[in-house]
Design a protein that fits this description.
Length: 305
């Protein structure tokens, strides 16, 4: 008897072209793939049998599995989708979506950090509160300078490390306008690490890792011959056991099936700190440096769930 094709939905916040890279490997693996945006969700209650949530014209309950690649700002639609999937017992990736009561920790770094702290995942010392609270209190816990991050920031764009108290005051005034719109911020100790490690995990297995220079490495890196040493931009192979174990443990605590775990290794002590458990990691560097077809590895995992 021929094995039934997996009927898979991959959905993303924003344009569905963001997941077009899954189409070719899905065809090669024999997967019946639908890609969609949260904008494609719709429902009506035109009869007495409740409602039917659809992607375009297709009932979402007809899929075998749904992979939520990126939620972005579509939290309302994501909540609607996950509740419908739970009602119809449809598998959803990542598992954190089906376990979250209000806001998944992948959306809020404060929620993510609280989850990791409860299980003693090593994070840089962290202070959460209003911008004025951070301004008045963070230094006594973290020293100065320290890092300020937006809880919903993307990549390295919403991270700051003012060098002086004057710069800090100016930054607080600027960020207050964003805080007034509902954004939140937290502060962390500035870890003296010249390299950042990204470990990619699928289904509890490390498939690769890369390293890149950190944003503020020149603040403590000594010049050699009048120049700063070049930071490393390369794959890490084999992935050291201490990186792998910490990345897998963090992934499990964060309730992720697919993750990019960002690690800092303090230059002087070798101590490891988790700075992010990314539920929607970019994998271009893993593909380029490690030579792994990440989309195919994800699809293989989804086929075997």
């Amino acid at each position: 008897m021929l094995k039934k094709k997996l009927k898979l939905l991959i959905i993303v916040g924003g344009p569905k072209q963001k997941v077009d890279s899954f189409i070719e490997p899905a065809e090669r693996l024999g997967i019946d793939l639908t890609t969609a945006s949260f904008y494609d969700l719709n429902f009506t209650n035109v009869n007495e049998n409740g409602y039917v949530l659809k992607i375009g014209e297709t009932d979402v309950s007809k899929f075998d599995s749904v992979y939520i690649r990126v939620v972005g700002k579509r939290l309302e639609e994501a909540t609607l989708l996950v509740n419908y999937l739970k009602k119809h017992k449809i598998l959803v990736v990542d598992k954190l979506y089906s376990n979250s009561l209000f806001i998944p920790s992948s959306i809020s770094k404060s929620a993510e950090h609280a989850k990791l702290m409860e299980k003693n995942i090593p994070l840089p010392p962290t202070v959460f509160g209003s911008l004025f609270y951070l301004r008045d209190n963070a230094e006594k816990f973290l020293g100065f300078p320290y890092v300020i991050k937006c809880t919903v920031g993307r990549k390295a764009r919403d991270v700051w490390a003012p060098k002086t108290k004057k710069e800090l005051g100016e930054l607080i005034i600027t960020l207050r306008e964003r805080e007034k719109t509902g954004q939140s911020f937290f502060a962390q100790k500035l870890v003296n690490a010249s390299q950042r490690i990204r470990v990619f995990v699928i289904d509890g297995q490390v498939i690769g890792a890369v390293t890149r220079p950190t944003k503020w490495r020149k603040r403590w890196t000594k010049k050699v011959g009048g120049e700063y040493p070049q930071g490393l931009k390369e794959s890490i192979y084999p992935v050291p056991e201490n990186y792998s174990k910490l990345a897998i443990r963090t992934t499990n605590v964060a309730e992720l099936d697919i993750s990019g775990i960002d690690i800092l290794e303090e230059d002087e002590t070798g101590k490891l700190f988790i700075i992010e458990a990314n539920a929607a990691p970019s994998w271009n560097l893993i593909k380029k440096d490690v030579g792994i077809n990440v989309e195919e590895e994800i699809l293989k995992f989804l086929m075997n769930r």
